[in-house]
Write a structure and sequence with these properties.
A hairpin with a 2-residue loop joins strand 9 and strand 10. 24% of the residues lie in helices and 29% in strands. With 503 residues, the chain is an alpha+beta fold.
């Protein structure tokens, strides 16, 4: 099972058969990068180009996480981001975010050209759309905020979508591409420049020092600097679990009869619908919810399919996938030193569902910090230890919810008293004395039973029926039905329980 996909993502079909080796023994490098998504790979490439010895380590495969499960948009126009930032932090914060995002779009195009990466990169307009008159005020505010932030946006009522549009803001010359091919182009460039990539190697511990030591399932990595680019930060010393909320979103792809849109669109209202195209396929995204929400099932995908069929002549749904995005309590990414006293450890997270642009922006900042260059003036905005007093109520609310989930799930009765009651193809919470276990029965009758205590901080997990996984409602860790880790911050699998044969 792929880390974030219920059924193979459109992009993961391009995953090369031959991967990179596992780490086998101890190594010493200048920089260890944990995470082989767009953030980690871009950081590694920029540093290898500056002469650093770099090793990239991933628990799975290059681009198998959020980079391989998205809508393939690299754009500085991001739904209603600028009006939200202006309200929360003022015009200067929105301008800093716009400058960083625009620089990231340019950086992606530049790296693809310089490294000769074949990733079907295309320049397209991006739209934030008011699908009804009630959404017009919000989109007008976004247009004004984006323009004040320095983006050359324009107002239009002409969007090539087959459903009514009351108006939209447009930003030209943005990018769509094949994200997995782009990521593998980056990884090849890293290796050409003398860097190393290790797949199937999970980082399990970190000791800060000079040098730092990263413990992994394949050996110890000694490094002058360590970049935590694991999407959701692993290792809890920075307290990021209290600052970030994990959100899951879903996508489908489908061939259609008739014309496809030529731009990249996202609606401003609820439910949000993101629209893009690739290679004759329509891509529709949306249906976001907090990770670990109750009652999640395949209706997430069905609602996207119904939307697509309402407005396009869909012949079949060929792909469906999902991804997880950490969002920060104050709506700004966290990019910089891992803790205020960290000497050589850095982090990038909270990319607010726009990771292809945000991860590239983060890589530029981290590469400058590590190589001793002065980052761009806007980079300081994303310091992980900024103080956001106006966003404090949301921080309190997020952590109150985590606390409530921790308590409520413990006092909620188990769903069944015996694993024998678990139907084929379904999961149940099973009573285990005074505790609970998670049980999933395969269609062929094979039963998987695991502890429901998340190995991160002990919250009880909930089953995600859309993706066949056990998800943590507190901090977003996810586990396969056999207990293996799918997403952090957890790094240890769930303990397995062995059912009696009579089950």
């Amino acid at each position: 099972m792929q880390p974030t996909s219920a059924v193979q993502s459109l992009w993961l079909e391009a995953m090369p058969t031959q991967g990179y080796p596992q780490l086998d023994g101890d190594i010493t490098v200048d920089v260890a990068v944990l995470g082989a998504g767009i953030t980690g790979l871009t950081t590694a490439l920029l540093l290898t180009r500056r002469g650093a010895r770099v090793a990239v380590i991933d628990a799975n495969r290059v681009a198998s996480g959020a980079t391989g499960n998205n809508t393939a948009k690299v754009t500085a126009l991001q739904s209603t981001m600028y009006s939200a930032l202006e309200r929360a932090h003022g015009q200067h914060a929105a301008a800093d975010y716009a400058a960083g995002s625009a620089a990231a779009v340019l950086q992606v195009a530049t790296l693809a050209e310089q490294e000769g990466i074949e990733c079907d990169l295309q320049r397209r307009p991006a739209f934030t759309v008011a699908a009804s008159k009630t959404e017009l005020p919000e989109v007008h505010r976004e247009g004004e905020a984006a323009a004040s932030a320095g983006l050359p946006v324009m107002w239009t009522e002409n969007v090539d979508l087959p459903f009514p549009v009351a108006g939209a803001i447009r930003l030209d010359n943005q990018i769509t591409l094949h994200p997995v091919r782009y990521a593998h182009g980056l990884s090849e460039a890293i290796c050409r420049a003398g860097g190393h990539i290790y797949e199937g190697t999970r980082a399990t511990g970190l000791h800060e020092g000079r040098p730092c030591r990263v413990s992994t399932t394949g050996g110890t990595v000694h490094a002058g600097h360590v970049v935590i680019a694991t999407h959701y930060p692993i290792f809890d010393r920075g307290g990021y679990f209290a600052q970030l909320e994990a959100i899951r979103s879903y996508c489908i792809a489908a061939p259609v009869r008739g014309p496809l849109p030529t731009g990249m669109s996202i609606t401003a209202g609820s439910p949000i619908r993101s629209v893009n195209t690739y290679g004759g396929l329509l891509i529709v995204g949306g249906e976001s919810h907090p990770t670990g929400a109750r009652g999640v099932n395949e209706q997430c995908f069905h609602r996207l399919a119904d939307f697509a069929r309402t407005y396009w002549e869909v012949t079949e749904i060929t792909h469906r996938w999902s991804a997880q995005d950490p969002t920060s309590y104050d709506q700004l990414p966290v990019i910089g030193r891992y803790t205020p006293i960290s000497w050589g450890v850095y982090v990038a997270s909270g990319l607010m569902k726009w990771g292809l642009a945000g991860g590239t922006m983060a890589a530029a900042i981290l590469a400058d910090l590590i190589s001793g260059r002065q980052p761009e003036p806007w980079a300081q905005r994303f310091n992980p230890y900024r103080i956001s007093l106006r966003s404090a109520p949301r921080l309190v609310k997020m952590n109150a919810k985590a606390g409530a989930d921790l308590v409520i799930d413990r006092i909620t009765p188990a769903e069944v008293s015996s694993p024998a009651e678990v139907p084929a193809g379904e999961a149940r919470v099973v009573r285990d004395g005074l505790g609970k276990l998670g049980a999933f029965r395969e269609p062929d009758g094979t039963l998987h039973m695991v502890s429901l205590r998340c190995t991160h901080l002990g919250c009880l997990l909930r089953f995600n029926g859309a993706e066949r996984s056990w998800d943590c409602p507190c901090h977003g860790s996810r586990f396969d039905v056999d207990g293996s880790v799918l997403e952090g911050p957890a790094v240890r699998p769930l303990p397995r329980r062995h059912p009696a044969k009579s089950f």
